[in-house]
Amino acid sequence: KIQISIVLPTPTVFESNQTIYNHGTPFLAISGEHFNKKRTELYFDPPLSEGDDFIMNVVSSSKIILTKQSTLNGNLLSWRTNNSPGPLKLKGINTGGGRVALNLS
Fewer beta carbons under 10 A from the terminal one: N or C of the chain? Predict the structure, then answer.
């Protein structure tokens, strides 16, 4: 037998209206289903970049923990790249099967 393809389940994210603070919330938990420990990409509005703005740890297929990066002097970066107050929206996720748009309010 030769394996031709692998069908990946579509990831889902559970909506949350939890208040986070630009500078006072060092961690952010994302809950859902079908997260992939080997490959998961998140797309935010305003844009954030893994490695530059946050570190991502896919804890399980149902939980992701994001940790804010800090500056060279130890100050935590903002959850918003423009450093202004406002919502941070998760707009999409890719767990290996292509980007899936999220229509969270």
Answer: N
